[in-house]
Amino acid sequence: MAALGITVALLVWMATLMLISVWKQIYSSWKLPPGPFPLPIIGNLLQLDFKNVPKSLTKLAERYGPVFTLYLGSQRTVVLHGYKAVKEVLLDYKNEFSGRGEIYAFAAHKEKGITFNNGPSWKDTRRLSLSILRDYGMGKLANEERIQREVPFLTEAFRKTQGQPFDPTFVLGYAPCNVISDILFHKRFDYTDQTGLRIQKLFNENFHLLSTSWLQLYNIFPSYMRYLPGNHRKVIKNVYEIKSYTAARVKEHEESLDPNCPRDFTDSLLLEMRKERYTKEPWFTFDNIAATIADLFFAGTETTSTTLRYGLLILMKYPEIEEKLHEEIDRVIGPSRIPAIKDRLEMPYMDAVVHEIQRFIDLLPSNLPHEAIQDTMFRGYVIPKGTVVVPTLDSLLFDNQEFPDPEKFMPEHFLNESGKFKYSDYFKVFSAGKRVCVGEGLARMELFLFLSAILQHFNLKPLVDPKDIDLSPSTIGFAKIPPRYKLCVIPRSGV
Ligand code: HEM
């Protein structure tokens, strides 16, 4: 009887504590943007469809407006929807919201590297990396040459398929993988290299798994789900394997480093580390270098490769668009010269198609999560330090005023009446502000040059009636992943 009494008292005590905590949460949030009422423990999870979170956010924006509050479990989150609110947060409040919301599967990169770093070393690591990347030709001639050097390998790999259907995932992956690998390690992988394939498989699997409902749930309840079996363990294991690979490359580089002649990005970071060695609290450690390189390797490969893969699927569905591209390529580049960046000025249709592919596939619909690094007054609300901030990108890319019929793939979204390329400030696939994508210039060059080269040499042959090609992504969480498909390419005559 006494035991029962104690149990009941304990339960009542726990329930009271929980109610107090919820009440405190609500009371302390009276200056937050509006949003649905959160339940204890789960917050607003019932308002979200985990198969398509971005769509749920759009629905909530229709109800609560362009700035609203959500609780993902107990994590306070402010969502920005639409051009004005997103741009305001990213550009006018670029410092206040420049933190990174935690992605728990990448805990190994916490306070290290660039992408997942929410610690004090992020600013210096990013600044230093950008300056070294500039020295190695980001956005300059050196990168164009790097991509052009890779083109014959890519077209040769396509030619070897001899008109037979093949899974394009890794063939297309080697191209951006080799470009970033050359910058980072002064190394390229043959298209049959097993280590290159393994690395790509890890990137590809992680990108896919991060977009599944399970991993989104894991990001909300990491402490409850940590001990359960499931795909979060696989992602964490893959993150470790990728980091061990980059750590091994860094070690190799250190052993053969010539301080007078840095060979690549890794050597340059190692030289910075040597400068730091005698400071009291060196922030630039071996581990930070390995994480920085892993971030650039992953982001530099998987995003561009997925865009190319999705892009070719879209072009198979619209043969009339492919035909216009062939016509433009034949007129401007001809059959034998490797495409160059200067061609872009004379190829407004290709430029528009590349932009429309990126808009339409909407690779990172909810961006990467930001975080408020201080209490911030925004549009009359107070957003406390530590709040996760989500500047959605799909709300700009699918704005129906800027892009009429946004659900349709139409290169005309980026062309004016006279067929010239039309810029749109809503095209923010690389985000903006302090956290803007580090590889924007490189990715844009790669997409234009690789797609031009593929279509210069090959016709795409759909294996089903183009009308039946389904463009719906296979998963929509962190990223929108294209459905798996087989590609078939036929060499063009005269090339
Ligand atoms: C189609 C290709 C790409 C797309 C769509 C893309 C998109 C993005 C987006 C939306 C972000 C988040 C920005 C934010 O938090 O506000 C980001 C961050 C980042 N991207 Fe990219 N990216 C692409 C290619 C690349 C490439 C080629 C590289 C490497 C050379 C790269 C490196 C990074 C890094 C390091 C960050 C983290 C920046 C930070 O947290 O400070 N990305 N990217």
TrEMBL record:
Q: Where does heme bind?
A: C437
Q: Pathway involvement?
A: Lipid metabolism; fatty acid metabolism
Q: Which InterPro entries match?
A: Cyt_P450, Cyt_P450_CS, Cyt_P450_E_grp-I, Cyt_P450_E_grp-I_CYP2E-like, Cyt_P450_sf, Cytochrome_P450_fam2
Activity control, as annotated, is:
The omega-1 hydroxylase activity is stimulated by cytochrome b5.
What EC designation does it have? 1.14.13.n7, 1.14.14.1
- Where does it live in the cell? Endoplasmic reticulum membrane; Microsome membrane; Mitochondrion inner membrane
Kindly state one GO CC term assigned in the UniProt record: mitochondrial inner membrane
Which SUPFAM superfamilies is this protein grouped with? Cytochrome P450
> Is Cytoplasm one of the keywords?
no
User: Where does the chain cross the membrane?
Assistant: none
Membrane among keywords: yes
Q: Which Gene3D superfamilies match?
A: Cytochrome P450
- GO BP of this protein: 4-nitrophenol metabolic process; epoxygenase P450 pathway; lipid hydroxylation; monoterpenoid metabolic process; steroid metabolic process; xenobiotic metabolic process
**Which is a Pfam family this sequence falls into?**
p450
SUBUNIT field? Interacts with chaperones HSP70 and HSP90; this interaction is required for initial targeting to mitochondria.
What the record says about family reads: Belongs to the cytochrome P450 family.
Q: What is this protein called?
A: Cytochrome P450 2E1
Instruction: Name the gene for this chain.
Output: CYP2E1
